[in-house]
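Data card: per-record layout.
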Amino acid sequence: MTDDFDSLMVAPMPTAARPLLGLTVLVVEDSRFASEAMRLLCLRSGARIRRADSLSAARKHLRVYRPNVVIVDLGLPDGSGADLIDELSHARPRVDVLLGMSGDSGAEALSVAAGADGFIEKPISSLGTFQECVLSCLPGGVQPVGLHAVSSDEITPDPIALQDDFVHIADLLTTNGGENLLDYIAQFLGGVARTAGDTEMEIAAKALAYHRENGMSYGSDVARIAGLVQSRIEPRKVV
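The structure for this 239-residue chain is written out next.
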């Protein structure tokens, strides 16, 4: 007997326009902006969505609920999403679909090696691409019957969520979290910048990551990022 209340309810049947109807998706993602994109993709596809912003939050959630689909970002504040993928790939009963997600090179291979059924490359805004990724990984007994419409729609996350991400980083930059916190900031900002199409921020985040990785001076990188973040959270002046 399961303790997931949702599983006690009769799941609605998927439709051509909403092929993921009846599925529950857990998105493990620390970025509010990326989470908003996933929320829109899931809702437009008919799926219910829950979110966890860290490994610990995801594990707490999974002790209570059993989603059909789990999508795990590889860069999380308390560790690698690959560790959670590995845990879930060996858990019994296993979730129907387990997907890794990242915009970093080499992340797909890492996800698959950890046991993921598939991979979502950031940024993702195509409804059809998202639906095909999930549907192609569903087990035969769970696959919806019949054809579904391949959507060409694109989703646009709320820019307020992007502001929330920059405010989060601004707070972290004033926190004495040790050297490893800078690695997380570089990874987080790089992912957010790719999702938002913010080339300037992405270049700055990559520079910090590169200099940190190679033992080079990075003080100017931190100062540059702090200035860029502040410029993105300050209200625009009305001329």
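Known properties of this structure: The chain has two domains: 5-137, 159-233. The CA atoms of residues 53 and 203 lie 25 Å apart.

See the next section for split statistics.
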